[in-house]
Design goal:
This protein is α+β, with helices and mostly antiparallel strands and about 270 residues long. Helices cover about 30% and strands about 15% of the residues. The structure holds iron/sulfur cluster (2 copies). The site of one iron/sulfur cluster (SF4) has 14 residues, from helix 1.
Length: about 270
């Protein structure tokens, strides 16, 4: 059954417990932080930060009361996942529960997922250019081999640690229905721009957001699209590649068979 993580921005206090829990569970290193003009830290996702909380400061002038908008930044676990479409080795793949898993052993560091993800989520270590360093990294919804919480009956580490109930984990349909009700209530209660992000974006995602304002206000990409080149890659180039590999393989087998037949016929003479 399809699963999902529901993030309710109206319950989030920006404590970053989820961000820290993700690092702890996945054994990711602390990274250097500095004041870059925001309370948000670190500044960006990296091979060592797969989930970070965005802090968006609204208002705060003499006439406008300051208000925070917090938003989760991590893999959306797309149903129509561009990263999976372009991954040539199958390292990125969609599980039966809908989460997009990553098998690092199969990753060849090609970087296609980084180029094509409409949410700019996966990261490669810069040192990969020299062939050394980490492989592609991103949130796996706690399905990484050896650290797999989901298949052992536990909820993702981020959900487990959230002290305010802003994060929940469960069947996607159930969470979707609850989120639709909450967004409808927000709309009728002085939040006309309330929005359920992930319901339909890129085929529906397995991380859903309850927002009390537009996605744009929360710094989220409005109407994300799977790049046409990613679809073409999956539908045309990959099968063509397999076809070429198949033809080369067939040619080799034929060569071996012909050579063997010649040897046998020479031996019989
Ligand atoms: S957000 Fe990006 S990395 Fe995550 S599943 Fe979607 S395309 Fe893949
Ligand atoms: S742990 Fe919960 S309340 Fe804290 S930042 Fe994450 S989602 Fe928000």
């Amino acid at each position: 059954m399809a699963k999902a993580i529901l993030y309710d921005a109206t319950k989030c206090t920006g404590c970053r417990g989820c961000q820290v829990a993700c690092k702890n569970w996945n054994g990711l290193e602390a990274v250097e932080t500095y004041n870059w003009g925001s309370y948000e830290n670190p500044k960006d996702l990296s091979t060592q930060t797969w989930l970070k909380m965005r802090f968006i400061e609204k208002g705060g002038t003499e006439t406008d009361n300051m208000r925070w908008l917090f938003a989760r930044q991590s893999c959306m676990h797309c149903t129509d996942a561009a990263c999976v479409k372009v991954c040539p080795t199958g390292a990125l793949h969609i599980r039966t529960d809908g989460f997009v898993a990553l098998d690092k052993d199969k990753c060849t560091n090609c970087g296609y997922c980084v180029e094509f993800c409409p949410f700019s989520i996966p990261r490669l270590d810069a040192s990969l250019i020299s062939g050394i360093g980490d492989k592609a990294t991103k949130c796996t919804a706690c399905t990484t081999a050896g650290l797999n919480r989901i298949d052992n009956g536990y909820q993702p580490a981020c959900v487990n640690t959230c002290p305010t109930g802003a994060l929940t984990f469960g069947d996607r349909e159930t969470l979707l229905s609850a989120a639709q009700d909450k967004v409808a209530a927000l709309k009728s209660n002085s939040h006309p721009n309330a929005y359920l992000y992930g319901e339909n974006e890129v085929g529906g995602t397995h991380v859903l957001y309850i927002l009390d304002d537009t996605p744009k206000a929360y710094g989220l990409i409005e109407d994300p699209k799977v790049p046409a080149a990613a679809t073409a890659w999956q539908d045309i180039i990959k099968p063509l590649g397999y076809g070429i590999v198949g033809v080369v393989g067939l040619g080799l087998i034929l060569n071996i068979m012909v050579a063997r037949a010649r040897i046998i016929s020479r031996e019989e003479k």
